[in-house]
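Reviewer 2 asked us to include a model.

Predict the structure of this chain.
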Amino acid sequence: MLRAAAKSALGRALGGVAHASDAAARWFSSGAASEDDVPDVPRNLLFLGPPGVGKGTYATRVAERLGMPHIAAGDEVRRHIREETDIGLEISGIVKAGGLIPDLTILRLVEACIHDARAAGRGFLLDGFPRTAKQAEALEAMGVPLDLVVNLSMREDALIAKCIGRRQCGKCGKGFNVADIDLPPLPDGTPGMRLPPLNPPGECMPHMTLREDDKETVVRRRLEVYRETAGDLEAFYRRRGVLMDFPIAGGIPETMPRILAALESWNADSVRREHA
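Predicted model (structure tokens):
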């Protein structure tokens, strides 16, 4: 049912278009929260951003803290490739080359996840989809509402270093980053950035793997592809009044409380606007 609606929606879309608060900091550091502890934030979220910015890292943590499903398109892509499903075999070469997976294919990967999340009635957090304005139109045409789109950004030299430094344990599946990033401020006013490595424990060291799409030539191609499509996608959600730009200049301990505070602030502002 959803698949038919999704394909129809995508067809129409393709045819029609050639500062962290103390409360947030305490809440973040307190571990898994009960339902009463969850901040008042938008319920249907999307995290955007270029490769390496940390969409998956922050989306996983935010979704866990808020008790909502995390729908990660990239995880679904890698699962299908790893399991060599029909879709996985179809898209493996595209991913290795740093290209964009066709719209219909990526929609097929996430549609069931969206359906399950909506059925649970607790909101959801999308990560990695949509990636183009056409995909965003298809999602909207399916009747999937987004309350807030968080547009994560980071200086490009840091993005490249982070991607190249990513590693995954082939045994337990956990992700790590061996990059030790210490970048000075730039003449244009861009602040410096210090990101210490997230090294694996000894038991994972023999099993470290580098994703095909995290090799430097592929990373640069992925960033180029992202730049080609990001402007239209950001403009799509900005016109709908749901886009929030969120630059990242530090690690997880500094950034997570800022994200949570920003979500609470956005929701409070939305409520005030509705009752103005």
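The two ends are 39 Å apart (CA to CA). The mean pLDDT is 83. We have added this to the supplementary material.
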